[in-house]
């Protein structure tokens, strides 16, 4: 096992290639240990070089709706009457704390996505 820090894009690609070769390695074997260490190194490198930004709250809601085959009407229990759902989805009204709590607990949308600042349209 020859493991080194991932400092460049080429190091990153080499580590990904090695993970492909080790993918089916058994736990608690030298290959399994190497796989585990490489996964951690790649994760650390990608956190710095390829960060994933928290999505806009409205886009997060729309994404969850698409995932679950929901319509605007399905959001009434979380946002209130249909006109309020329309206002929120069209960025005419901000999410309230109560809406955020209901969306988080009912649709399992991450709190971090729901509390991110976003622009309203005028």
Which structural class fits the helix and strand makeup?
mainly alpha
Level of helix content?
55-70%
- Radius of gyration computed on alpha carbons: 21 Å
Total number of domains: 2
> In whole angstroms, how far apart are the ends?
59 Å
**CATH topology group of the largest domain:** 434 Repressor (Amino-terminal Domain)
CATH architecture of the largest domain: Orthogonal Bundle
Low-confidence stretches: none
Query: How many β strands by DSSP?
Result: 0
H/E topology pattern: HHHHHHH
Instruction: Give the CA-based shape.
Output: elongated
Task: Provide the CATH top-level class of the largest domain.
Answer: Mainly Alpha
Mean residue pLDDT:
94
Main sheet properties: none
Strand coverage percent: under 5%
Q: Give the count of helical stretches.
A: 7
Short structural summary:
This protein is mainly alpha-helical.
Structure description:
- The chain has seven helices and no strands.
- It has two domains: 9-49; 57-114, 434 Repressor (Amino-terminal Domain), CATH 1.10.260.
- α1 runs antiparallel to α2.
- The model has no long low-confidence stretch (mean pLDDT 94).
- It is elongated and about 60 Å long.
- It is mainly α and 122 residues long.
List the helices and strands and how they pair.
Elements: H1 9-22, H2 30-49, H3 57-68, H4 76-79, H5 82-89, H6 97-107, H7 111-114
């Amino acid at each position: 096992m020859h493991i080194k820090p991932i400092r460049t894009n080429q190091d990153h690609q080499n580590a990904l290639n090695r993970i492909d070769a080790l993918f089916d390695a058994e736990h608690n074997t030298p290959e399994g240990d190497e796989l585990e260490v490489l996964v951690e190194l790649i994760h650390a490198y990608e956190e710095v070089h390829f960060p994933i930004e928290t999505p806009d709250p409205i886009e997060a809601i729309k994404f969850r709706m698409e995932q679950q085959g929901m319509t605007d009407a399905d959001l009434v229990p979380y946002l209130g009457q249909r006109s309020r759902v329309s206002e929120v989805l069209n960025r005419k009204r901000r999410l309230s704390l109560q809406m955020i709590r209901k969306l988080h607990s009912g649709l399992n949308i991450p709190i971090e996505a729901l509390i991110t600042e976003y622009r309203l349209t005028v």
